[in-house]
Design a protein that fits this description.
With 599 residues, the chain is of the alpha+beta class. The chain is 25% helix and 29% strand. It has a seven-stranded mixed beta sheet with strand order 23-22-21-24-25-31-30, with helices on both faces. β24, α11 and β25 form a beta-alpha-beta unit. The protein is globular and about 75 Å long. Bound molecules: 2-oxoglutaric acid (AKG), fe (ii) ion (FE2) and zinc ion. 2-oxoglutaric acid binds next to β11 and β20. It is found in: Cytoplasm; Nucleus. It comes from Callosobruchus maculatus (Southern cowpea weevil).
């Protein structure tokens, strides 16, 4: 390096030193230690453990890799000082792994950040009901099984997706189910029978004999997206035999992510909690990062992997206790909801708001900026309707428009009236207006209280009906995902200490249910936690002036998945979705009314 370059590098590193300190609180310098800081590449620029390991393990054994969420720096730690020095000399200012293929800049650090990467990603603890039996079969048996079903390798490697073959019954990926009345001619090969004898002799699974087999053939770089094997399709357990190559499979539940190495010839038994409540998936990549027994990170290259997944077809519906991923439970609830929808809305929405109106009013006075911006975007003289206006938080905000609110709660409309707003009483399913009279409609946190998809669609249809062509509507609904982009929403973040009003404290246990109508029950959501179900009862603890709890009410909510709201809106022929976004734990759309397309 000439002197000019050296000066430039020094200035660059000095600047980055401050950036790293600001981002992580870690002091770094040019004094060699075992820990190297990659100052300008991290999770935000798409750097992965795998890439780090690929380039840095060339110089020695790593005992830690730390990627900090949301940051553009990362850390690598070597077991020996001279390894770190060698890597530093070779890679500083050279290695183009940062964004735009710019070289990485390196410094040394005294310590690593406390909160490492994915501190959620764990290796030592298996989810409940997961068992891995190493060396379940011998190498000869592995060869025999591999020979049972040939995939043409030259053909396979050109395909984007893994190759799949079914025996006994076909698993259809279009509807995630099996045709139970259409068994295949090709049964599970007899050559597999020794597996069950061995299983019965060596484990507590004394009865299990599968009647369905899926063979997955993964070429290099292929994986399988996270999923739960459909509850109603297969019994418990599910067993997967790994052949030819090891792979890392991940199990996820809530914000936990457990990585498990499946060596070749091992049998992975997924039962109970693992089979029903955790998703499993294999990231598509060519190698995996594994934590060895000695605590060092190594790169485990993958080869072609074939897995034999054995299952037993379930007759009838599933009635497991793990309801969130249970298609049987969801289907039953949905059909019951269809029938009972209007009654549930009356008991668990309309009556509840009538009862909690005054208390609700005290807790709802801060308008959301994006809604205000929408309201303020209308011209002088525009006609605007707030469907489900509640206490009138968004009425009278734009002084140049003529705005009217409507709601099902007389008590909330009284609050509006006291503030001098125009309102009327109505249900959002039928708006008492002629077609095409309004320039704008807002409906904030309303249609998630409707208990069937048909009714939610009907409410949107009504809003569009009363809009003039080119009129715009803004709709907000509560999102099922309250952890979007790794940020918890204020709903999740608010804990007891900094909560202004103590209305939403935890009153439900995990998995508790409450009756709603005609023998039907719905899950009761635990406040301030992620949603487990889409149709839930959310507790409201009613407090009096003295701030003591008088009663608990359960409000019905249908919380929305990503894209669910926009998919629903797309069903209407005369709307264009102008914008779709996530705001304060809600999914939001801006719609524009159009003429009916091609008519
Ligand atoms: O390849 C594996 O081990 C898992 C396959 C799997 O999860 C499935 O086919 O449902
Ligand atoms: Fe699976
Ligand atoms: Zn189930």
């Amino acid at each position: 390096m000439n002197q000019k370059c050296a000066k430039k590098m020094e200035r660059k590193l000095n600047k980055l030193k401050h950036v790293v300190f600001k981002e992580t609180g870690i002091v770094c310098s040019l004094n060699p230690t075992n820990n190297i800081v990659i100052c300008n590449a991290g999770l935000v620029n798409g750097l992965s453990e795998e890439t780090i390991l690929e380039h840095f393990s060339v110089y020695g054994t790593l005992n830690n890799i730390v990627l900090v969420p949301g940051k553009s720096c990362s850390f690598v730690s070597y077991v020996e000082l001279d390894m770190a020095c060698k890597a530093y000399e070779a890679l500083n200012g050279q290695l183009p792994i940062a964004q735009d293929n710019k070289p990485v800049y390196l410094l040394y650090a005294e310590r690593l950040p406390q909160h490492s990467i994915d501190s959620r990603k764990v290796w030592d603890e298996l989810p409940g009901g997961l068992v891995i039996l190493d060396d379940f079969i011998t190498e000869n048996e592995e060869k025999l099984l591999l020979s049972l079903c040939c995939f043409d390798d030259s053909l396979v490697s050109q395909m984007k997706n893994r190759q799949v073959r079914h025996f006994g019954y076909e698993f259809r990926y279009d509807n995630n189910n099996v045709d139970k009345d259409k068994p295949l001619d090709e049964k599970i090969p007899k050559e597999c029978d020794f597996l069950w004898k061995r299983l019965h002799e060596n484990t507590d699974w004394k009865q299990f004999v599968p009647d369905q087999l899926t063979v997955n053939h993964y070429s290099l770089g292929q994986g399988i997206p996270h999923h739960v094997d459909t509850h109603s399709a297969f019994e418990d357990p599910i067993m997967s035999l790994s052949l030819n190559s090891a792979v890392v499979i991940a199990f996820k539940r809530d914000d936990r992510d457990i990585c498990v190495k499946l060596p070749p010839r091992s049998l992975c038994i997924m039962s109970g909690e693992t089979r029903y409540d955790w998703t499993h998936g294999i990231i598509p990549r060519k190698s995996d990062v594994v934590l060895s027994n000695t605590g060092s990170y190594t790169l485990l290259p993958r080869g072609i992997r074939v897995s034999f997944t054995f299952r037993k077809i379930r007759q009838g519906e599933c009635n497991c206790q793990y309801t969130r991923n249970c298609d049987s439970y969801i289907r039953k609830n949905n059909s019951e909801l269809q029938i009972a929808a209007s009654e549930i809305e009356r008991l668990h929405v309309i009556d509840v708001y009538e009862n909690i109106a005054l208390h609700f009013n005290e807790t709802r006075n801060k308008p959301w900026p994006n809604v205000l911006e929408f309201v303020n975007s209308f011209d002088v003289g525009s006609v605007m309707l707030d469907v489900g206006c509640g206490n009138g938080k968004y009425l009278g905000k734009n002084k140049h428009v003529f705005d009217v609110g409507c709601d099902t709660s007389c008590a909330l409309l009284d609050v509006c009236k006291k503030n001098g707003f125009e309102t009327f009483l109505t249900n959002c399913l039928q708006l008492p207006f002629k077609d095409a009279v309004a320039d704008g409609v807002i409906s904030i946190a309303v249609i998630h209280h409707l208990a069937s998809e048909e009714r939610r669609l009907q409410a949107i249809e009504e809003m569009i009906r009363i809009l003039k062509v080119d009129g715009r509507a803004l709709i907000y609904v509560w999102a099922k995902d309250q952890h979007k982009n790794n940020e918890k929403t204020s709903y999740i973040k608010q804990d007891r200490k900094n909560r202004k009003s103590d209305t939403d404290v935890v009153v439900a246990d995990e998995n508790s249910e409450a009756p709603v109508s005609k023998g039907m029950t719905l899950p009761v959501h635990v406040n301030r936690t992620q949603f487990k179900h889409k149709d839930v009862l959310v507790p409201w603890r009613l407090k009096n002036q003295q701030n003591t709890v008088e009663d608990t009410f359960l409000r019905f909510y249908h919380v929305f998945e990503e894209n669910e709201l926009s998919d629903l809106c797309s069903k209407l022929e005369n709307v264009e979705i102008e914008r779709c976004y996530y705001d304060q734990g809600n999914w939001c759309v801006v719609l524009r009314k159009t003429l009916i397309k091609n008519s």
